[in-house]
Amino acid sequence: MTKAESKYFNTAAQMDEAFLSLLEKKDFEYITVKEICQKAGVNRSTFYLHYETIGDLLSECISRANEEFMSCFSMTAENFACGISDTPTEELFLITPQYLLPYLSFIRANKTLFKVTLSKPGIMGADKTYDKIFSRILNPILERYGVPVSERQYMLSFYVEGSMGIVKHWLSRDCEESDEDIADIMMKVIRK
């Protein structure tokens, strides 16, 4: 990476950080480019060099968070998805400490972003993320268990909404309980 590229990415990171800091204090709709620039210590022209809109900045924050999240796991999503057909059904569960603890740790480290994601899933693109999870991971698992296609979306809704309900409550308590305690609760609620 050249010095210019490094500076470009550092400036983008400053704006990401400023934006997330502002999200802690006010709703997305009320954040202005001027506030982001002041908080990041950059000019408006620098903002527009990187983004067309605040929505673009938000998209970048989500993409960065998704990349960081996937790096928490030893196996890539593609490798996991490919392995679904070869994994014995008794081992085909995502509600295990192996998957939950990195997820919960990531949520704790990115509380602000997740609070916004849960309060405004449409703005944050959460629906697209859930669609990917469903098509690449959950649908093939449900297929392996012989669950009829007509029932799969209902099951996905149950698991996602239930899991997100626990996470949302945990976030409302500022992640007071340990990651292990929340993982244990989730595993008790969602039995194999």
Summarize the structure.
This protein has helices spanning 3-25, 33-40, 44-50, 54-70, 77-83, 97-109, 111-119, 121-124, 126-144, 149-172, 179-189. By secondary structure, the chain is mainly α.
Explain this structure to me?
The chain is mainly α. Helix content is 74%, strand content 0%. The longest helix has 24 residues, at 149-172.
Morphology call: elongated
Quickly give the structural class: mainly alpha
Order of helices and strands: HHHHHHHHHHH
| Strand percentage | under 5%
Q: Low-confidence parts lasting 5 or more residues at pLDDT below 50?
A: none
In round numbers, the mean pLDDT is: 81
Please tell me how large the radius of gyration is.
19 Å
Major β-sheet, in short? Answer: none
How many helix segments? 11
Work out the number of β strands: 0
Fraction of helical residues: over 70%
Terminal Cα span: 47 Å
